Structure formats: structure tokens, C-alpha cells
């Protein structure tokens, strides 16, 4: 079960990263954009860290308060969920290596 959870988090973070990248490219070329609700939903579903990295990497949505506030908050919330799923002792030992 833990393996499936890790694969899920990897996939949703990659999806969020590339959705933000695509939205940036569409913004630059004037094509149809990805809705902000869709980007935030991907963060709510566990892709907050991927979205955050993409925002920083491509300098996209960094001036929108709802993204600069909610994406890190959701990232730390998912960090807590992950710590709960993995067990606190595993998580703490992993962070101190």
C-alpha cells in the first residue's frame, strides 16, 4: 500500500509540474490556458510540491496570492499526510539522514 501511495504522489506531482509548464507556454504563445482551478485542484490532490517547483522554475503564477499562499500550505499539509501514512518514526529517521 505504501508503494502505491508513493507512486501516486510521484505521478500527481509530475502531472502538476507539467501542467504548470504547459500553462506558461500557452500564456506566452496566446493559446488556450489551463484553468487556475485545475492547477489548484492538482495541488489539493497531492501535487503541491510539483506545482511549487514548476512555479519557481518557469516563474509562473508567482504574483498570484492564491498560488503563493495556498500551494505551500497544501504542500506542508501533504507532507503531514505522508508522514502519517509512513509512520512518524520512518519519516523522522528519513529526514535526519
Morphology: elongated
Multimer state = single chain
Low-confidence sequence ranges:
none
Mean pLDDT score: 90
Strand percentage, roughly?
under 5%
Order of helices and strands: HHHH
Span of the ends, CA to CA: 24 Å
Overall helicity: over 70%
Biggest pleated-sheet summary: none
Total DSSP E strands? 0
Rg calc = 15 Å
List the total number of helices: 4
* Alpha-beta classification: mainly alpha
Structural description of this entry:
- The protein has 97 residues and is mainly alpha-helical.
- 84% of the residues lie in helices and 0% in strands.
- The chain contains four helices and no strands.
- It has helices spanning 2-29, 36-58, 65-86, 88-95.
- The longest helix is centred in the N-terminal third of the chain and has 28 residues, at 2-29.
- The model has no long low-confidence stretch (mean pLDDT 90).
What is this structure's SSE topology?
Blueprint: H1 2-29, H2 36-58, H3 65-86, H4 88-95
Helix pairs in contact: 1-2, 2-3, 3-4
Amino acid at each position: 500500500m505504501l508503494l502505491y501511495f508513493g507512486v501516486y504522489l510521484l505521478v500527481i506531482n509530475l502531472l502538476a509540474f507539467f501542467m504548470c509548464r504547459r500553462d506558461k507556454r500557452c500564456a506566452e504563445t496566446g493559446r488556450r490556458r489551463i484553468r487556475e482551478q485545475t492547477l489548484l485542484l492538482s495541488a489539493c490532490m497531492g501535487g503541491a510540491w510539483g506545482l511549487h517547483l514548476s512555479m519557481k522554475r518557469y516563474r509562473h503564477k508567482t504574483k498570484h496570492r492564491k498560488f503563493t499562499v495556498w500551494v505551500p500550505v497544501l504542500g506542508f499539509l501533504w507532507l503531514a499526510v505522508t508522514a502519517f501514512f509512513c509512520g512518524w518514526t520512518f519519516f523522522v529517521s528519513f529526514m535526519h539522514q
